[in-house]
Amino acid sequence: MLEEFKPTWMVESIYSVSPEQLKARGIRAVFSDLDNTLIAWNNPEGTPELHQWMAELREAGIPLIVISNNNKKRVAKAVANLKLPFMSRSLKPLSFGITRARKKLGLAKNEVVMVGDQLMTDMLAAHQAGVRSILVKPIVQTDKWTTRMNRLIEKYVWRELRRHYPNLKWQEDLND
To answer: Span of the secretion signal (predicted)?
Structure first.
């Protein structure tokens, strides 16, 4: 059960993962959590680094799709400035949102990656969907109230992950 929370990669920031690194691993689409992964939960504008990374993905022909547990209205408002497609009410840690997005693109499981900042939702959903995952550090150290309970449980899961997988470490990028 513990391996269900183990990310494929742990990267400090998604912005350091290049389209070339993704393509070298056969990844043709990036699915991403929204809050504290792409944007700070309290700042929907995004950073210049995010906009640069999105432009690089677009130029490389790699779609970026937001997979969020939030409702459609909330996600639509949050991604309006980013002009990103999304799957709302994805029910993470279940695989529904990831699977719907993958099938919509007509891609195999090994051709997508799920990016997120939480073990309890994003990494578990990726495992449930049978896709690879990238865990990133949260953009800001505060969370919405709905995420705080997950963070408490996550501390215990982290302790066990580190005990069972002592080689788990944060990387600069996928080549590190």
So the answer is: none
Give the start-to-end residue ranges of the domains of the chain: 2-164
One digit per residue, the tens of pLDDT, for the chain of length 176 reads: 789 999 999 999 999 999 999 999 999 999 999 988 998 866 778 889 999 999 999 999 999 999 999 999 989 998 998 999 999 999 999 999 999 999 999 999 999 999 999 998 999 999 999 999 999 998 876 555 556 667 678 888 888 999 999 999 999 999 98
Output the DSSP codes for the chain.
Answer: -GGGG--SEEES-GGG--HHHHHHTT--EEEE--BTTTBBTTBTT--HHHHHHHHHHHHTT--EEEE-SS-HHHHHHHHTTTT--EE-S--TTSSHHHHHHHHHHT--GGGEEEEES-IIIIIHHHHHHT-EEEEE--SSS---HHHHHHHHHHHHHHHHHHHH-TT---BSSTT-
